[in-house]
TrEMBL record:
Organism superkingdom: Eukaryota
Gene Ontology MF term list: unfolded protein binding
Name this polypeptide is given: SHSP domain-containing protein
Family in the record: Belongs to the small heat shock protein (HSP20) family.
Listed InterPro entries: A-crystallin/Hsp20_dom, Alpha-crystallin/sHSP_animal, HSP20-like_chaperone
SUPFAM superfamilies: HSP20-like chaperones
Naturally occurring in which organism (per UniProt): Dermatophagoides farinae
SHSP domain location: 39-146
Biological processes per GO annotation: protein refolding; response to heat
Length: 152
């Protein structure tokens, strides 16, 4: 058995040189970028799409894998928290999903007028108008979710 120290590989070409048939058995793997080019955690985790345009705040979240009854949106100060949980039990298996996302609401958004809409594709849209005067309110409240485009 060939003993190779763990730190001997500098790049993909070093691995390929170990055995002449390596490239033929795994050609696609070695066409990928080197390991040092992996995405960082920040690049892998998708941020919610948020923006202020035409005097309106809007944030979109993809919650298609969750039951609408398990989705909750809460505002605490200027932090909007979206929680979603789903649990499935079956014969010989158990499935649990959980989603938590916190979004900082800009000061110019009228927090008391935020609305949530969940479409049939699981896209949650949180929107609200901008304040006419900048006011900072310190109160928490739950935000109801309105179901839109649901087939009956």
């Amino acid at each position: 058995m060939l003993s190779i120290p763990r730190n001997c590989f500098w790049d993909d070409e070093d691995i390929l040189s170990l055995h002449p048939y390596t490239h033929r058995s795994c050609p696609r793997t070695y066409m990928m970028p080197a390991l040092d080019r992996f995405l960082t955690l920040d690049e892998m985790v998708s941020e919610p799409s948020t923006m202020i345009k035409n005097n309106k705040f809007q944030a979109d979240l993809d919650l298609r894998n969750f039951d609408p009854n398990g989705i909750h949106v809460k505002l605490d100060g200027n932090i909007l928290q979206v929680d979603a949980k789903q649990e499935k039990k079956g014969d010989g298996h158990y499935e649990f999903r959980e989603f938590v996302r916190k979004i900082t609401i800009p000061e110019e958004v009228a927090e008391d007028q935020l609305k949530c809409k969940l479409d049939k594709n699981g896209r949650l849209r949180i929107e609200g108008p901008l304040k006419k005067q900048l006011e900072i309110e310190e109160k928490g409240r739950n935000i109801p979710i309105e179901m839109v485009n649901q087939k009956k």
